[in-house]
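DM between two lab members

TW: hey, do you still have the Exonuclease domain-containing protein entry open?
JB: yeah, one sec
JB: this one, 254 aa:
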Amino acid sequence: MSHTTRSAPAPLPVGSWAHGPLLGFDTETTGVSPTQDRLVTAALVSRGPLSSDGTRAQQVRTWLADPGVEIPAAAAAVHGITTERARAQGRPAAEVLEEVAGTLATAMAQGTPVVAFNASFDLTLMEAELARHGLATLRQRLGGQIAPVLDPLVLDRAVDRWRKGKRRLGDMCAVYGVQVDEALHTAEVDVAATLDVLEAMAHAHPQVAGTDLAALHDMQAQAHRAWAQSFNRWLTRQGRTPDADPSWPLASSN
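TW: and the structure you got?
JB:
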């Protein structure tokens, strides 16, 4: 039986953002529409700067919210939170949203990148939910665009465009050699896996680690737009409705 030998990871460039702190973010929701569905759980995983021995201090915070609406069975089957549990154990959604948004905005204002897989879903959901509850949106808190954001899904499409296969988080864990001991689709496990994939990607693709955060943020917006336009052309050729949103890190409706 043959075995694939992984080469040693490339060192990170001096001064790279990849040496600094990271804030991972993920949500679980009542459905798949970021503008219409509601927050059920949120997780933030804060990782400190890379130490000399290659480790990072890590802090995990999780929230369970009562979304104020029924959680459909299909959504509960994904993340395991039923309407009954959310009502019994969840905190009021407005309280959860305020705490999560405050932490996200503080990090970004300090220049710490928020790391989210398929970030446009979670960030669009946050903006919609904050507005729904009469709370300041992330853009209002930041006084401008939501940045810096790092999205391993968008980055992977940009740096390894022609790789075949799906690009779900679990698929990318396999590609980048990230071990996940627990089932994905609990927010905190997904966040840790997303951060691990990003860090592995920074080693595997020097252009990712070597680009400053502002330029990398802009590159992702351009790369996502190019991907969406290409995918929509493919959908049209297949006789299907082109529905890939070209906007990032927020959906075009925002």
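TW: got it. The first helix runs from residue 73 to 79. Strands lie at 22-29, 39-47, 58-66, 91-92, 114-115, 149-150.
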